Fold this sequence. Notes:
The protein is α+β, with helices and mostly antiparallel strands.
Amino acid sequence: MAVRDFGQKVDVCRRIKEVLKNYEEGSLLKEMVQNADDAGASVFDVLLDLRTHGSSELALPGTAAFQGPALVTHNDAVFADSDLESIQQIGGSQKAGSRSTKTGRFGVGFCSCYHATDLPSFLSRDFLVVLDPHCAHVSDNRSEPGKMLCFLENPKTVASSRDTFEPYRVFGCSLQHSYPGTIFRLPLRTAEQAAASRISAQPFVGAPARGLLDAFLELLPELPLFLTHVHTVTVSVWEAGAAAPTLLRSLSTRDTKSGAPPQRSRVHELVAARSDLRSLTPSQSISQIDVRVSDSAASPSAARWLIVQGMGAGRALEICLDPACERYGLTPIPWAGVAARVMPTGLATEGRPYCLLPLPSATGLPVHVNGFFEVSSNRRDIWHGDDTIGGGRLRSEWNIALLQDVLAPCYAQLLLYARSLLHGPAFYALWPSSKPAEPWGSLVAAMYRLVLDQPLLRCEADGGSWLSARSAIFADGGGFELPDAAREL
């Protein structure tokens, strides 16, 4: 009997194309920030490099068409060996299989870079990696669609292939020593490349690249509120023919009290060190951070944010301990936070959900909320709905439990603390004025149940005092009305 190999195969280009359907183009830079934060980076830089580099001296001749304009990012963390494994797994990553505080997924989220390019590459430590899912430019081995070049092993190769390495001589990279960071380079897909691509038929040169950069610039002021490590971000453009890049915008995040970068990894380390969440004690931390943005085209701006984060228990902890989580691939952590802008006052905040970084959807709240939510596959919103069985039901239940048992206490504590920072309309602007759509309505209801007996209403009679909503008497025309969401309780 003749026996031969037989089995299912994965078409890498087709798989990447399917992933791109669930990742909008605007998510590309957010995914890169997430991966940098996961790696422990404190600095993240974006460079739109519009130069065209030489193509006559290449270590990989098939890359000649990719020496033109590129989107380049840098962070100050090195690429770990585990990251090298993750980035080769399109369907998953080393991060996804364990209980951790990491949000990026090199295996899936990294694929969003293919919106912009067919040939991503990255340099870190002593190696340069070029990924070629088409197996058409640097590799014809479909089981290993890419190349790794160890540039420190043979300096002569760097000298004889200077055009290959020239685009990476940015952000202090000299190629003479092990590089203490990571540089990603995404050559922007041209019209000719798009016509032949099996990943995307959309060119990314010109307006699409500028649009991506503009969207990131707009997001920047509220980007770092819940990040664990990244506290400095810059965005630059290197025009063709220019001797150096031009800084468009920079951001720095500092602890209001100390003036130093925020120390926000304590909670993450606490959770990562626990093998058994049964011993978890509910706790909260309160901090204020100053986010400063410098802009080449406008005056510098600054905002101060009050942030309350904490661990919770209740149903959220019960779900964390449920064996069904492992069966359905969930790794929940009962940790969440709320952020409110306290300076300058008078600016409305369109609340958004965060999974360390903002999701595109709105919550209808006057604050931002962050947590280890189960999100939809395209990361646009948190998972919610009327799922009645299986993993869908568990994901919905988890998000509701996180909102009610962890976020609601954080929100209540934020209001209590904000009494000393804000007065009058600025303070009451932090309260939800109406009950938003679900699932956020469940958060508001749970929060108001917690604060009904707390002294959060200012009465100026008899020298002034703080009263609870339950004990207060509201006079018609008195200047304050209890929000509808609270009256419903």
